[in-house]
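Title: Prediction job returns without error message
Component: structure pipeline
Severity: low
Priority: P3
Assignee: unassigned

Description:
Job completed but the reporter wants confirmation the result is attached to the right record. Sequence as submitted:
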Amino acid sequence: MQGIRSIKKSFIMLLSERTKDATERVILKIAILSYLLHLFIIFLNVQGLLHFEQEFLKNPIAAIYTPFSFILVYEVFLLIYFLPKSITEYIGKQYEIITLIVIRRIFKDITYVELKSDWFFNEHDLQFTFDVATSLILFFIIYLFYKSIKKRDYDAIEKSDKEGQNIKQFVLLKRYMAIALIPIFLIIASYAFIHWGMITYRDHSNGILEFSKINNIFFEEFFTVLIGVDVLLLLASFFYSDKFYKIIRNSGFVLSTILIKLSFLSTGLVSNILIISSVLFGYLILLIHNLFEKDAESKSP
């Protein structure tokens, strides 16, 4: 009983609505300052006071990339925040993160775009086209995904002894996992920042290049952790439900996360296809799960 109270206290402190709002304010302030700093560096570089050759530090549009990086960090926090509340919303946050990563990549791609007649033969122009199309497709699939999430009346469910007790235990387990993810998230983020800082200190130009490839430093590692979390959720679901369609749904979500992870290891069109496939697969899994659930509810007395 004391352990449950301790978990509840930690949960309130780390993942409460108040903490979420405070984190949001801090991240937004950092994002605004980072945007202004990036613009200032670009201004100095254009004026010849600095000497960076990367387009990333020459085009003002590229400055949008920097605040997006901090907004993505907040999205990761929201992902952890939603884990104890709903598995489907937690998965939805994963899809939001990968979509924002693609959109952020557009702001980097646009600095290399060349407005010429051979648009579809230029590597950078093609990547820009792929990313724009991918972001639109992802945006629409995520809309369908959230529309398919069924809101459950947990208060009514908890009145039933067995199912209510199972849900309470499963929610408690997810709170344990969410609290454990906070220090992991902070460690990976700190490592990414220190790693980038050391590279920048040794070689300024290489440091800028590493920042523009920040996905490989932070998000690739974090999604590896999320695969482990998804597998644990899948295994835990066996204790609380033996329904086939729920097990398949949770298994499908694991595969969806793995596809997102694989997209970080790929480049070009293959990466875009993997990202779209991961979100589309998760949406179809949820859609079929809902059909099974609806059929089961119609048969129940």
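Comment from assignee: result matches the submitted record. Confidence is low (pLDDT under 50) at residues 153-160.
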